[in-house]
Amino acid sequence: MQDVSNQGDSCRQQVYRCLSSICRPALETLLHNPDAPDHLGVQLHFLELAEQDNQLAVAVLQTPRNVLAEMDCVLGILKEEMEEQDAQQQAIVLPGQRPPARFLHVRLHSLPFGPENNAIHPSIGAVGSLHINRLVVITGTVVRASSIKMLACQQMFECTRCGLQFPVKCKLEDGGKAILPDACPRGSRPCAGVKFRPVPNASSFTGFQEIKVQEKSQHMAMGALPAALTVVLQDELVELTQAGGGWMRSWLRQGVNGGDF
Predict the structure, then answer these.
(1) Of the candidates 32, 62, 205, 220, which lies 20 to 30 Å from 40 by C-alpha distance?
(2) How far apart are CA 178 and CA 158, in angstroms?
């Protein structure tokens, strides 16, 4: 398998074949749910992924940010295919029915456990710089949960030269700011434009929430103080837990002092 950070056709085709086989039935059911939110998580069992494509399963452990981003893109492709199929079949849309979820995210769970995978299952006190940009599973008790805050997750911009409108995704680690391209991304007919203006009333928003997860007493040495981590929940993951509840979750760690799911 090629480096997944290279958005080549062969890499995307590999991810497409895998997710099309595993996720298409569940995705079809979720997208036809009239109550589906704008952000929708599609569950993916690691063992099922490994059975379908072991090379891809290894890659998601080695470079999770790149692979998961590619998987999210492929979910968008599958969504567009399903919408086109519905249109061809003249699917009936009920009055007042909400459009399908616009943002899809792969939610990987049930990561491998064993002596060779100890780095994936650290105690909270053992999480450190080694785990930056890695998938880990942490177990603990939620001792604090913040209120939900809003964040722009995508903004639309327009090239002042050719008028092309294009979306720009915003990331929490960038403070919700849109990082604009150096030049107009028009592909069919190259444009030399380098100035862009925001499109009014075209931004999309999502929620995020901070929780503090504390190590459980049975995982601590005698007399040791409990370690804790601040975790940031985004999109459909907000409000999944409350203070006092248990927590065990796959986690994509992005910083030393906290992490994002």
Answers:
(1) 62
(2) 13
Is residue 144 a contact partner of residue 212, using CB atoms and an 8 Å limit?
yes
pLDDT tens readout for residues 51-76: 999 999 999 998 998 899 899 999 98
Whether 131 and 43 share a structural domain: no
- Strand, helix or coil for residue 60: helix
Contact yes or no for 101/30 (Cβ under 8 A): yes
pTM of the predicted model as reported, rounded to 2 decimal places: 0.76
Bridge partners for 44 per DSSP: 108
Q: Are residues 87 and 171 in the same domain?
A: no
* Interaxial angle between packed helices 9-31 and 64-88, expressed in degrees from 0 to 180 and rounded to the nearest 10: 60
Query: How many CA atoms lie within 13 Å of 260's alpha carbon, on the beta-carbon side?
Result: 14
| pLDDT tens digits, one per residue of 99-113 | 555 788 899 988 887
Q: 221 with 204: CB under 8 angstroms?
A: no
Q: What is the DSSP letter of 119?
A: G
Shared-domain flag, residues 137 and 242: yes
Output the average pLDDT for the chain: 80
Please classify residue 89 by burial: count the beta carbons closer than 10 Å to its beta carbon, then call 0-12 exposed, 13-18 middle and 19+ buried: exposed
Is residue 192 a part of any domain in this protein? yes
Separation between Cα atoms, residue 178 and residue 203, nearest integer Å: 11
Domain total in the chain: 3
Residue 110, classed as helix, strand or coil, is coil
Amino acid letter at 177? K
